[in-house]
């Protein structure tokens, strides 16, 4: 026993990924099945576990509670409430690790998922069932984009006439400070946004196995809505911390390290998670799960290991930049680098008409603005382009926590 890892002898019949219980009541999960022992990661403090203790199999793969009883609650990675409001009412339990739906069970993305941010809804539209990466350095407002999206569903849901229009939200906080999570709960409850949201928190002080598990737990809760013909949005904030927690676990389990000391299956870690966000076909209930994973870059380096892993898995990315943030362009979205690969099919017709040429004009403006810095005399056409571009840059700006409904945006 040590460093949150226990090597257990004698559990010959155990399954991979099965829950075990130690004598102290702490739970663990069997990850390494070796010839003579089993490598178990401990969910909680390993100080109460001694050599020679008995370890019991639970006979079940790790599962979490799911269902509408979870809405408005804050739970940890194992689905245990941590908001001090008592136990969960009636709910079902769902496996944390399940296979993603196959190609036949899916449908292409065609309904819009409104974020309430002008910059996103016009230039990088997101559809229900899409996976859109939010990537950028720390303190560039990545979480703000995600939270505004949750807050925007308040007005969307209050107008919803049927269950098929409502969008439920799951927010997974991985490796964040407790104060940050508490602040978030306060923001959501003040906006009455908790009633359609679930918060899964694995804070920085939680053991690495819980930070590794939290995204899968949140995903299982979101899949309840997806598989029952409803719509859900899940935000993973952020997956870089999950990868770091997974690296720590893998190295302690003595799995061979690869690039940047990450294990070889760190790509699979994220791909099997994000592949579970899908738009179901009409035969399977037409539900959807939209994912907004967040990745933190170091000094804007999009070509580091984890970012290059996650960018190809997702259907596009929203890039936020420090420079734009400090220039007062907030949300600090770099329109040139941000793309949405499937979202344009889900954009509303009215929005398409209004901002069809916007992206092109902004691109032309950036090109000319770079040349205009040299200060040579500009002809009238170029000057007009610069003036228009400067005005267009002002259009997508908007303050935090004030998402706009789509008709106001247009």
From TrEMBL:
Gene Ontology terms, MF aspect: ADP binding; ATP binding; proton-transporting ATP synthase activity, rotational mechanism
InterPro entries the record matches: ATP_synth_asu-like_sf, ATP_synth_asu_C, ATP_synth_asu_C_sf, ATP_synth_F1_a_nt-bd_dom, ATP_synth_F1_asu, ATPase_a/bsu_AS, ATPase_F1/V1/A1_a/bsu_N, ATPase_F1/V1/A1_a/bsu_N_sf
Keywords, in A-Z order: ATP synthesis, ATP-binding, CF(1), Hydrogen ion transport, Ion transport, Membrane, Mitochondrion, Nucleotide-binding, Transport
Domain called ATPase F1/V1/A1 complex alpha/beta subunit N-terminal: residue spans: 1-59
Residues covered by the ATPase F1/V1/A1 complex alpha/beta subunit nucleotide-binding domain: 116-340
SUPFAM superfamilies per the UniProt record, alphabetical: C-terminal domain of alpha and beta subunits of F1 ATP synthase, N-terminal domain of alpha and beta subunits of F1 ATP synthase, P-loop containing nucleoside triphosphate hydrolases
Alphabetized Pfam families for the sequence: ATP-synt_ab (PF00006), ATP-synt_ab_C (PF00306), ATP-synt_ab_N (PF02874)
Cellular component per GO, a single term: mitochondrial inner membrane
Main localisation: mitochondrion
Annotated localization: Mitochondrion inner membrane
ATP synthase alpha subunit C-terminal domain location: 347-410
Described function: Produces ATP from ADP in the presence of a proton gradient across the membrane.
Assembly information from the UniProt record: F-type ATPases have 2 components, CF(1) - the catalytic core - and CF(0) - the membrane proton channel. CF(1) has five subunits: alpha(3), beta(3), gamma(1), delta(1), epsilon(1). CF(0) has three main subunits: a, b and c.
Similarity section: Belongs to the ATPase alpha/beta chains family.
NCBIfam families, per the entry: atpA (TIGR00962), PRK13343.1 (NF009884)
UniProt-recorded name of the protein: ATP synthase subunit alpha
Source organism (scientific name): Abutilon x hybridum
